Amino acid sequence: SLFGKEDGLDPAKKFSVIRCFDDKLFIPQLGQLIVFDRSIADVQSQPPTILISQVRINDSLVLQKADISKMDLRYNQNRIQLEFAGINYYKANQNRYAYYLEGAEKDWIYSNRNFITYANLSPGKYTFHVKAANHTGQWGGEKSMNILIHPPFWASWWFVGLATLVIITVLVLV
User: Fold this and answer.
1) What is the pTM for the complete model shown?
2) Nearest Cα residue to 90 out of 41, 53, 25
């Protein structure tokens, strides 16, 4: 909601509203008369700035509160937990997030949660995208991080080529 308890209004209680032409609302509530001036309350809020605040690989913390745009991982480092934050000080609990892992997902996932876990990722190239919106639905800029999971050596092209060459050589010599 745009206005609630933190703004002096209790939406849980029923009340009548008298609106004047000068953008003031008069709200009788619990024997009081609350004057609510919408022109003062209309804060020009900026969209949140997004930050990837924590990265865990196989449940071990590897990055906290640092700006990173690229990660190179081994084949067995395939469980990734990313935590992110929308930097916004006004009604931050109403921030919404959207994210997706390019290479594993096709569409944005919209959520109130500020973390995601990807498990059993196959070797390959991925790009994690995330953005945040404030309480008014205004989306901020996107943050991305490239993730490269290298294949094990026995699945690499040079090992397969070398193994094939050895097998052919053994077959020819025998």
Assistant:
1) 0.71
2) 41
CA angle 110, 111, 115 (to 5 degrees): 115
Indicate the DSSP class of residue 151.
P
By the 8 A CB rule, do 118 and 79 touch?
A: yes
- The fraction of the chain above a pLDDT of 70, given in percent, is 74
The gap from C-alpha 162 to its chain's centroid, in whole angstroms, comes to 42
Length, in residues, of the chain: 174
**Are 7 and 90 spatial neighbours (Cβ–Cβ below 8 Å)?**
no
DSSP labels for 59-102? TEEEEES----EEEE-TT---EEEEEEEE--SSGGG-EEEEEEE
Q: Provide the β-strand partners of residue 64.
A: 54
